[in-house]
Design a protein that fits this description.
The protein has about 375 residues and is mainly alpha-helical. The chain has helices at about 40-55, 65-80, 85-100, 110-125, 130-150, 175-185, 190-200, 205-210, 255-275, 295-310, 315-330, 335-340, 345-350, 355-385; strands at about 5-10, 15-25, 30-35, 215, 220-225, 230, 235, 245-250. Helix 12 packs across helix 13 (about 345-350).
Length: about 375
C-alpha cells in the first residue's frame, strides 16, 4: 500500500504531508506525517527526499537515530557540494569535536542547552580557535536545518543558539625596513623565491607551493593562480581556495628577474638528477627531485632567516598581510589590493585591514587640504612676510 498527500493546516496556516510506506501488523497503513512547512513546495520537497531515503535504505526512524549516525550521512551528502579539502576539515571537526560530546544523543533529543554547553566547553578548553568554534556552530546548524527539512526533527534547535563570537586578532606585519632586512638575507636560500613571492604578490602559501612554470608569464610580467598544494602537502589540488582565488597577479621587474634565475637553478637540478629520478611536476617551488616542497623544511628555513635578519617573528601567512598593508599605506586602491589577494569582496579586505584606515584617512585629509587650500596658504605666508 502506498500513498502521498500534501495538505494545508488551516489553524496554523502551514503545510503538512502524509507518506504511506506500508502496512502495520494490525493491517492499518504505516504512515509518516510531517508538519510545519511554510510553503506547499517545501512540504513536497521534504516528502520526496524522505521517500528517496526510504527507497535507498538510508532512512532510520527518528526515535532510533543517533546524531553521530546522522552526521556521517550528512558528511557523505556534503561531498557532492564542497571541495575534498573542505570535506577533510569538516570530517576532522565532526569526528574530533562534535561527535565525542553530542554523538550519542538521539537526533530528536538535541536541544539548545546541550548545543550551547558544547560551545562553552570548547571555548573553556581552548581546543579550537574562535574561528573554528564558529565553524562547529555552522556545521551543527546546517546539519539540523537539513534534518528539519527532511522531517527527522520538528525544529532546528541550533537556530536558537547564538553564534559564538570570535575575537578579531590584529594582523602582524613587517615595516618596509624589516622587509628589506629579511630580503637581504635570502641569497643562497633555495626557498628564497617562495618568501619573495609571498611579500611581492600576497599569495597564500598553498598557492605559492602549487605554482607551475606554465603559469608564469614572463612576456607579460604576471602569474596566473590556478591550483594549490593541499594543507597536508600530499597532493596538488586543481583549484584555488575560492572562486575569486583564481586570478592574475602582475609582478615587478626584480621579482621577474629572480624568477628567471630560479628557473635556471631548477633546470640544472633536473639535469643533475636525471630523468629516472627527477619527477617533473613543473613546480616553481619544489624539492631537488621535482616533488612538492615539504612544508616543515620551508618553515625551518623561514624561521632561520627571520633569526638571521633580526626581524620580528611572524607567520608565513603574515607576509601576505604585510604585502597588503604596504600597498594600502602607500595609497593603493583597496579594490586593486583585494584583487591581488583573491578576496571574494573588497569588504573582506577593508575589514581585515581596518586598523590602517585612521592613518590612511589622515593622509587623505592632508592631500585634500593641499589640493584645495595651497593658494590660501601661500597668500597667508606672503601676508605674514609683509607684516
Amino acid at each position: 500500500m502506498a500513498g502521498r498527500s500534501v495538505n494545508k493546516d488551516k489553524k496554523t496556516n502551514t503545510w503538512y504531508f502524509v507518506l504511506t510506506i506500508g502496512i502495520k501488523d494490525n493491517g492499518k497503513p504505516k504512515q509518516i506525517k510531517r508538519r510545519g512547512f511554510k510553503r506547499k513546495d517545501d512540504a513536497i520537497k521534504a516528502m520526496n527526499e524522505l521517500e528517496a531515503s526510504i527507497n535507498s535504505g538510508t532512512y532510520v526512524e527518528t526515535s532510533k537515530l543517533l546524531y553521530k549516525d546522522y552526521l556521517h550521512q550528512w558528511l557523505e551528502d556534503k561531498q557532492t557540494k564542497v571541495k575534498p579539502q573542505t570535506i577533510k576539515t569538516y570530517s576532522w571537526i565532526v569526528n574530533k569535536h562534535i561527535i565525542p560530546y553530542l554523538g550519542n544523543i538521539e537526533l530528536s533529543k538535541l536541544n539548545p542547552m546541550v548545543i550551547q554547553q558544547l560551545y562553552n566547553r570548547l571555548t573553556k578548553e581552548k581546543s579550537l580557535s574562535d574561528e573554528n568554534i564558529q565553524k562547529v556552530h555552522t556545521m551543527i546548524n546546517d546539519s539540523l536545518k537539513k534534518a528539519e527539512r527532511w522531517g527527522y526533527i520538528n525544529k532546528n534547535h541550533a537556530s536558537l543558539v547564538d553564534r559564538p563570537k570570535a575575537t578579531k586578532k590584529e594582523v602582524q606585519v613587517w615595516t618596509v625596513d624589516e622587509v628589506k632586512r629579511f630580503l637581504n638575507h635570502l641569497e643562497g636560500n633555495r626557498y628564497s623565491i617562495a618568501f619573495l613571492l609571498a611579500l611581492t604578490t600576497g599569495m597564500r602559501q598553498g598557492e605559492i607551493l602549487g605554482l607551475r612554470w606554465k603559469d608564469v608569464d614572463f612576456e607579460n610580467g604576471c602569474i596566473r593562480i590556478t591550483q594549490t598544494l593541499s594543507a597536508d602537502g600530499k597532493e596538488i589540488l586543481p583549484y584555488t581556495k575560492t572562486k575569486s582565488g583564481s586570478r592574475v597577479i602582475d609582478l615587478d621587474d626584480d621579482t621577474l628577474s629572480r624568477l628567471k634565475k630560479h628557473r635556471l637553478q631548477i633546470r640544472q637540478e633536473k639535469l643533475q638528477a636525471g630523468a629516472g629520478i627527477y619527477k617533473d611536476m613543473d613546480l616553481v617551488i619544489c624539492s631537488e627531485i621535482g616533488t612538492p616542497t615539504n612544508k616543515s623544511n620551508l618553515r625551518r628555513v623561514y624561521d632561520r632567516t627571520i633569526h638571521k635578519a633580526n626581524v620580528p617573528k611572524i607567520r608565513f601567512h603574515d607576509m601576505r598581510h604585510t604585502h597588503a598593508t604596504l600597498l594600502l599605506l602607500q595609497g593603493e586602491n583597496p579594490k586593486i589590493v583585494s584583487e591581488r589577494l583573491g578576496h571574494a569582496d573588497v569588504r573582506i579586505t577593508l575589514d581585515t585591514y581596518s586598523h590602517l584606515l585612521p592613518s590612511m584617512q589622515k593622509e587623505t585629509a592632508k592631500k585634500l587640504g593641499k589640493l584645495l587650500f595651497s593658494d590660501n596658504i601661500i597668500e597667508q605666508s606672503d601676508a605674514e612676510n609683509v607684516k
